[in-house]
Amino acid sequence: MFRLALLSFVLAAAACSPDAPAPQAAAPAPAIEAKPMAVTIGVLEDRPGATAAEQPRFIVRALFQKDKQGWRSLEPECTDLSCLASAPADFPASVDWTVVHHGGTRGSVRATTPAAWQLYADVGSQEIAAGVTPPVIGERSMEFAGDKSVPIYRPLLAVSAPEGADADSWKAAEVSPKAVAAIRVAFRGLFANVLNCANEGAVGARPVTYADRDVTISKGAAAKTGWSVATANLTGYRCDGPWDDTAFAPQAFAVSPGGDARYLGEGLQFLDASDFDGDGKSEVVFAITGSNQGGYQLRYNDFGAQAVFAFNYH
């Protein structure tokens, strides 16, 4: 009798209990959003053909990228063919570039990184689709030709952001007398002792003296902030061979609003400036034009910081 009552109680309790919940389907995994590309600076270049039969073409070279520490160079530092074959994988597959000049947008191009680069001078380069006509400024000339033996269009800065504006309004300008004096003092500090040859094409350089007026100042640009840049050099190099690392090669300087000259490097040509990262201050880009060397130097934080992308032609 007791067993029968217990069984009835268990059955009644089961009848009153709610059904066990049905197994739930696993929730779908949240979609992974593509990480936005860091602000990247490039340059639109006019590339002559490698041979007389090859037609010139335009490329975009990816140069610098912004990270938490500042601007960093994307230079892969390739020294062998295996690097030329593998390094492109570290670059963005394609970029929609905004081409800028003097603070204004000049157009846009999409460029794609090739599977491999063929030459050391190709590092960082992306190909523009056939049939696309990129923007150009002026006519082809030797101004930025560097080690190339044919005239090219002026390189134009490009940025991965939708637009770029020159917050500091950099423009080509005559170098002020105050800046000229500061540059000449800094130049003599670098080249207190100068060697030259007695005759054209000679060897056996000997010490020579020079006056401040012998230091030629050229290729100036200035910003509304009071900063300016210019190159300085001596003329009349007579020795046989290149003038690299001498006072006769163009040396670039920046001059602060207070009149202090700061040495930037050899073979630098002011190219353009823009506020690429939107911090309210322009970054300044120089083209590197040396013997068998090309590339670009980026200066920011009032010329106190830099990033360099350099390569050899041969």
Describe this protein's structure.
By secondary structure, the chain is mainly beta. The chain has 2 domains: 127 residues, no CATH class; 107 residues, no CATH class. The protein contains 3 helices and 18 strands. A 6-stranded antiparallel beta barrel has the order 1-2-6-5-4-7. A 5-stranded antiparallel sheet has the order 8-11-12-13-14, covered by helices on one side. Strand 17 and strand 18 form a beta hairpin. The longest helix has 15 residues. The N terminus is likely disordered.
Question: In short, what is this structure?
Answer:
The chain is mostly beta strands and 314 residues long. The chain has three helices and 18 strands.
Helix and strand layout, with pairings?
Blueprint (H helix, E strand, L loop, with lengths): L1 H15 L23 E8 L9 E11 L2 E4 L7 H6 L7 E8 L2 E9 L12 E4 L27 E4 L11 E2 L4 H14 L3 E3 L9 E3 L7 E7 L5 E6 L17 E5 L5 E6 L1 E7 L8 E8 L2 E8 L4 E8 L2
Antiparallel strand pairs: 1-2, 1-7, 2-3, 2-6, 4-5, 4-7, 5-6, 8-11, 9-10, 11-12, 12-13, 13-14, 15-16, 16-17, 17-18
